[in-house]
Amino acid sequence: MISPTFQAMTLAAKHIKLVQQSWRALRDVNAQLIGDLFYSRLFYEHPEARALFPKDMTAQHQKLIDMINVVVARLEHLETLTDEIKALGRRHDEYGTLPHHYGWVGESLLWTLERGLGDDWTPAVQEAWTICYTILADAMLRQS
Ligand code: HEM
Known about the structure:
- There is one protein chain.
- The protein has a single domain, classed as Globin-like (Orthogonal Bundle), CATH 1.10.490.10.
- The protein contains seven helices and no strands.
- By secondary structure, it is mainly α.
- Bound molecules: protoporphyrin IX containing FE.
- Protoporphyrin IX containing FE binds near residues 49, 88 and 137.
């Protein structure tokens, strides 16, 4: 049965294609570099977020990329990830993550993608990633 969480939030095929294509172009570049860019932006704009994370961020970079890989690969069937996303949302409560932090992370993610993609960062790609992130963040927040 399809989870009610995702029923109302099905991504359009055009969004899925744009997110998958643009992520394919980026993810092979260098996970460490993308992670560096993302967390530098997050901590520069919101220094108070730094205290939530461990001192050594090396593993964190890869975890972020791995998670995006999983979600992007399964965009057509997000309902298969419902339990994982629920659990991820609950773990984030334990990490001390607050609802307004999701806006910070979303902004840093889009900023990172824009830098990484250069000319391939079009308004349509931006819209597709924004919808995608919002769905994921909403689902994490609702389940926590
Ligand atoms: C859609 C949004 C997000 C996704 C997909 C995501 C994904 C992840 C993943 C995969 C992990 C690895 C550990 C685990 O699986 O539990 C993690 C850890 C963590 N995330 Fe997120 N995250 C998101 C939003 C946020 C936000 C908004 C914050 C707050 C600023 C945050 C703070 C953290 C912290 C503090 C850790 C634990 C670090 C550690 O102690 O190792 N995350 N996140």
